[in-house]
Structures
1.
Amino acid sequence: MSSNAPITIAAPKGRTLKALVPRLRRAGIDPAPLLADDRTLIRMADGGQLRFLLLKPDDVPTYVEYGAADLGICGRDVLVERAYDLYQPLDLGIGICRMVVAGAVGVKASTDVPRVATKYPRTAAAHFARKGVQAEIIYVGGSVELAPLTGLAELIVDLVETGETLVQNGLEVREEVSKISTVVVANRACYKLRRERIVALLDRLRDPVS
Amino acid sequence: MRLVTETKTTPRSLEHPLPAGMRDLLPEEASNRRALSRTVLTRFALHGFGLVTPPAFEFAEVLERGLGNLDPAEVLRFVEPESGEVAALRPDVTPQIARMIATRLRGRPAPYRLAYEGTVLRRRSGRARKHRQIPQVGVELAGVSGPESDLEMLAVSADALRATGLTQFTIDLGDAGIVRALLADAAPADATAISSALGRKDEIEVSELAAAAGLGALSPVLARLMRLHGGRDALTAGAVLLGETRAASALARLTELFDAATALGLAEHLSVDLGEVRGFAYYTGPLFHIYADGPGEAVASGGRYDELLARFGAPMPAVGFAIDLDRLAWALRTAGSAPAVEPRVIFVGASSRVHAHALRQAGMAAIVLGDRDEAVAYAHAWDFAFIVDVDTQSALHVPTGVTAPLPAVGAEADSAAFFRRLAESAQQTDSSRESSREFQEKPRGA
């Protein structure tokens, strides 16, 4: 079943791709084609066995869910937020950060129904619903830290890696929603149809320590 | 030679919009779907399944009793004006069949072998590619338990798919009983959360959830389970892993089914996944998904749900499966298996009506048009394969431009066969001249 075609991997451009490089090297996959400074969006690697698609991180699961890519590399934040129907057979243990609720230092929420600004409206809504707190969720596309400083919202739900950005903007972590890391996702049909090659690749990528 | 008439088309679809997720099928696609469902239903009938046609909507309270693993949020409901009760557009046909068996068919002896064709309707969830309307064909076999009926489902589904021309497909077997047995002591909420993570093969989350639920001892077994997929060797490895657990009997049942399906000649299609738990709350025993290249989702799925009929007051074991016709069409397209299209004929010239009538009597579509130019334009626009000029006694095969003389008058019993033969030979001649790809992918709107 198209057994000789390369395995197609949807990979995020930017930071995550760089973090992936040591793992690829250890798996015996030369990352040079991925890092080449040109504008092609399809990069062949591993002697033509792998075909990487370079995408915006948020688009990775979409390509995999449709089967346009067999595998993808993306953060748990996106998977949780959009509830993709995908296998997540390997946690790469990179891109580790936390999804947290944060607010201005020393400022208590003033209303019964706090306003929460976030890039992750479903994740935030589910978190407050679980706690039995009614919250008004406000979607913003970025610079979420600005919301509590300007009165747009009292709280934010956002990804935090070191917490430095929060500190610089006078914000503090109130609680943790979940731990986030980068995982390999697989299309359900592709995983079953090309099982042997996909499992072999995952075994190569698996951290021998973990 | 390729006759192409330019037709200017302005997209007008947005002038009269459809609700999100609803769509029309135009002649080419609609006839393709109809041909597929006819082929599948014919195979179902040959296996002894009687066709039933349940209604498009029912009272929500009745329908939702048998919803299974479908999220209630996916059901489209409305208040039925006659009764003032809440009705639901069917999101799944299986509960309707269960209701029929429990009510109108109750007097008849089991087993019940029933087939259906119909569109199910679901609210679009946030995920990609979830249509609101999903055309399905399926079967239900109720009132018989045991491995023979599980095997029958595999045999019937493989037979039906092969009949449509699909040769490369994988039947991925699992058994809901394995995870059910392992999680029997877990609180329902924990079992649901763990099985959902198992369904995503998320090893880290499974072990975290298991630890949080006080099932830490189970973690290594569950982690191993998620990687036990493949061929017969996965079952052998499973026997080692699960031999001393409560899941041993479910695994034995699955192994027996795998071996029986192999003996039946399905070996090339079979795979097994011991950690597959999709539909965990619904299925009670063996379950399967059928995959083929193309759609990226299962073409068909089914399994055993022995608890469903009891919800309608007629407790009895049952198995079934459904084929998603849209995904099947996609898989066939990917496999390069073009649907067989019966040629259609346009007659021009004197006594065209007589000829057209004769051809229809022979079972082939025919129409009459005023003149040749009109016929050429119409044939291109509406996919008619032949234009027959009765005056010159010649037949033009429109896609290739090949012309052939008509056979002698009076051989009308063979006239349909003549056009079929001519279409075939014209295409063979043509494809030797041009690339076959160009031929298959006829430009739209040309």
2.
Amino acid sequence: MWKVFDMADNKTIKRKTDFKKGLDIFLFLLPAILLFVGILIAPIAVSLYRSLQKWNGFSPGTFIGFKNYKDLFTSGSINWMTSLKNALIIAFFSVFVQLPFSLLLALLLGRKYKGERFFLTVYFMPVLISTVVIGQLWLKIYNPDYGILNRALAALGLVDWQRIWVGDPKTALGSVVVPTIWQYVGYHMLLMYAGVKGVSPDLREAAMLDGATNWQVDRYVVIPVIKPIIRTSVIFAVTGSLKTYDLVRIITNAGPTHKTEVPSTLLEDMLFLRNRYGMGSTISVMLIILCFAFALAITAAFKEKEY
Amino acid sequence: MLGNSTYEGKHYGVPLTMNIVGLFANMDLLKEAGYDEIPGTYEDFIKCCDDLKAKGITPFGCAGKETWCVTEYLESIIEKSIGAEELNNVFVNGATWNNQGIAKAVDTFQEMIKKEYFDPAGIGLTNDEVKANFMAGKYAFYMNGTWNCADFAGNDEFKDKVKVAEFPVIDSSKSKLGQLIGGPSDTLAVAASSPNAERAADYAMELGKLICHYGYLDGCGLPAWTPYGDTSSVNPLTQTVSEIVANADSMVLFGDTAMTADDAQVYLSYVDQVYGSAIDGAGFIEGLASDLR
Amino acid sequence: MQLEERYTLKKSNPAVKVLVYILLVIWAFINIFPIYFMFTFSLKSNEEIFGENVVGLPKEWLFSNYVSAMNTGNMGLYFVNSVLVTTVSIFISLAAAMMATYAITRIKWKGANFTNSFFMLGLTIPLQASIVPVYVILSKLHWLNHYSTLIIPYSAFTLSMSILICTGFMVDIPYDLDEAARIDGCGLWGTFGRIIVPLLKPAYATIGIYAFLQCWNEFMFANVFISDSAHRTLPVGIKALSGAYTTDWGPIGAALVIATFPTLIVYIFLCRKIQDSFIAGAVKG
């Protein structure tokens, strides 16, 4: 039933089908591209443009070149370096405390203990609860007078260890780090648990037949298999830490004296309290650059280890 | 009075309500220290704080987490030290912050912190928590806006224990009673580009007056417009405050409202450091002088 | 199943097992406590919340908090708005992701890999970066205070994750089916509609959950872009319960319970299905 073509027809038809194929591809991609470019990419370009201006959000802005960037690092009333340092500290604890714990839970639950489903469900719950609740809860724990923490310390006779947790510059950041890390343990745990479950039983069986204990199986068989998931978790953990906002706002309000400032609270202050939209755009641009840089670095770090 | 709704000589908004900083006191606790009235002079006031401390009562509660709460205390102290006009010049009229009077007032404030007149836990508390503590009888005094009158008067257990007064004069050569912190800050404005702008503006004017009137009757604000009709239902706290306002001759608007947004944030960050005892009076004025003017 | 039994029972020290259980139970308690806390403070008064009775059951059960949250707080309307915005966003995100993933994975063309990486960049962009530019554009277009004002950005935010998930599930659909459809005369669109879309069903639940998590509790955009209360969503409505100077926290707790309990109920009942989907989705990631 095939028609006979001559060379000229072939080329025309190929061009036509190529064109149609190109058109189809374009149409399939269109909604996604429109949304993506319109809401995520174009605003980055606008942010870049606005970051070079002094702008109060209403009147036309005045071009000031890189002054915003310079002010960011040198101005006394803009705590950029502090906020960056705090975000990185949170990221550090997130990657080196939260993720190992999530991994541990994922591995433990992957061993089919009783109540696996129950624990899995419960551990994910903090992720679903609004940060307002979590913030308020931890405020009650940290309260110097009736808070559970100070009361417990007193009961144990450790009155010297009592502090004004959210007000003391030495402990304020820690008071934010703990709930931040605690809330998302379940999120990363579930991601890793998925990977753990995906490890083929044959592999495990083989290792156990070779005499491996549970822990050795985990270390030499399971973890290498779920490396891609761990890498994704690390990227999410770091970029998420750079974007921390809710808990800082609620627990310490970036205090005392801006010591627990993070980039997101700084951004909000610039935009809504100080009407400095140019500076706000500058912070946005810096955040984007940082997130990209870390994502690339983490991907590269994980690639090296896969020989 | 209309300073906050005026720009370059033109009025741009209608004030809705008005509030000042009031010194609220828990009379039960003061009685325990041997005082039947809120002390009227500064010397008596300090002595009262010492007596309260001797009885194990914390004189003040102030929420460090919300810096505006600190300004409720600090600005009153500054005003009663250097006088309303000087303070207003610094806030609004472009006078320099390099003012020894202000430095001295800040040091006075920090003296009080050092003498532990303030609840040390306050630096980590929100205003809601401090206010709840005050109503639970933890602090003798609470210096905050008069919008609180409604809540205090509406609480059956607490309303008979609380009274309000003006902060005493610290330096009577420069300041006197009748100089207050506060004024109309909330305003209602209409965008000129909106349809029927003139009708909307007329409506906003009447709405402003009514909000003011009923706010006053409910005790959550003071009349920015002259009250009319029967106002005897207003709670006793608000009535006391109205009398204070009626006898006042100058008002300085709250610092963070009077200044531009950017300047206000810089100012607040320095106030923060003062409450945290990170800088002293000299550091305060130097920093603000170089950052602002 | 003999195999699985063998690898868990063999060589597991009973003492270690007990310790592990203790750890798991303690952690479970720590995770359930916030829910108990939320329920109890939604029924208390400010006095109890802030000092008298922080942890215990309410001395006075103030169901009036729920009444005031629903009436003055208007939580019912905000709940409906949140549901509307979230579900439509999920739907749009899903549709756009399926189409885009189909183009990237099933059609052979030169830019496919690059386009995929391009979309993956979206996973690292912080949302706050777009808020000012998008706001300026939307306000110039007089497009604020509509449902679509939030739906469009939300769809965009969840797009990268949706494409990532779809890519994973797409791999499971055998290419033979595509071939068969092609031979039967279906074009690209036909194949897409008749084969791919029905077979991507496992992806719907996974994308639904991730997208739901992102949209339901989203605050910043909802706060800035919607200023009238008719279109307001839950997180903003809850924040609006905080007064300018003072706050009644009981009704806020009630509002939070109203906002959270559907999530929890849905989560508990669909727990099995969700976990399976989540697991399937993540493995593909």
